[in-house]
Amino acid sequence: MSDSTGRLTILHEIGFTLSERQSAAIVGASGSGKSTLLSIIAGLDTPTRGTVKLAGTDLFALDEDARAEWRARKIGFVFQSFQLLANLTALENVMLPLELQGRADARERATEMLRHVGLSERLGHYPRVLSGGEQQRVALARAFVVRPAVLLADEPTGSLDFATGETVMQLMFDLNREAGTTLVLVTHDRAIAARCERQLRLEAGRLVGGGDPATAPPPAAGALVPDLEPAAAAATGLTPAGDCA
Q: Mind spelling out the 3-state secondary structure of the chain?
């Protein structure tokens, strides 16, 4: 990345692999590169060099359209700000990713997922009349309804009160186990991070804890390389290693 002062290196010398069903928290101080790493894992931002592999596919070997299609089928997202469409009901918000896939059973599956997160009485409600916790549960339903291989969450409880946040996080971990989804979340909350099987700790753009030495590349002068690939048979892995500048 470049700004008015020239080349700016955000992430570098990063490498790790996550297995199918594993949960990992990306932690670190503000400005350490957590959200940038999450965006690269999702294929939303492009590293200067390196790879992100999901189920054996290198996301950055695909063109933009193919990457977007792959992301829609394999990755679910949960954001701090919910990112619901205001002009769609709870049901319509959850149906949307299924409709984009051309699923004939979109309404049935979305209804069942909303029932699963305790919102069967809110199907026809618009986001503006839902509480923050209800909106985040709609967001969770939308993320899980496509049965993603990987769920990426960026401060999913950051805008919720403690009790509501606890409820949402418990639901997220429950769905993670039930769906067999690999969970990667960014959080400042130590208690949430401690519930994850792995903690990937960033300091000034470097991975200083939780990495996998066996998969990390030799130290390089400025490179981010994320990979999301099977670590073994039937395993989904995430192996960033390199630099984003």
A: CEECCEECCCEECCCCCCCCCCEEEEEECCCCCHHHHHHHHCCCCCCCCCCCEECCEEHHHCCHHHHHHHHHHHEEEEECCCCCCCCCCHHHHHHHHHHHCCCCCHHHHHHHHHHHCCCCCCCCCCHHHCCHHHHHHHHHHHHHCCCCCEEEEECCCCCCCHHHHHHHHHHHHHHHHHHCCEEEEECCCHHHHHCCCEEEEEECCEEEECCCCCCCCCCCCCCECCCECCCCCCCCCECCCCEEC
Tens of pLDDT, residue by residue, the chain (245 residues): 455 555 667 788 788 899 888 999 999 998 889 989 998 998 888 888 888 888 788 988 999 999 988 888 888 888 888 889 999 999 999 999 999 889 999 999 999 999 999 999 999 999 999 999 999 999 999 999 999 999 999 988 888 888 888 888 998 898 888 888 899 999 988 999 999 999 999 998 899 888 765 544 443 333 344 444 433 223 334 444 445 44
Its pTM stands at 0.79
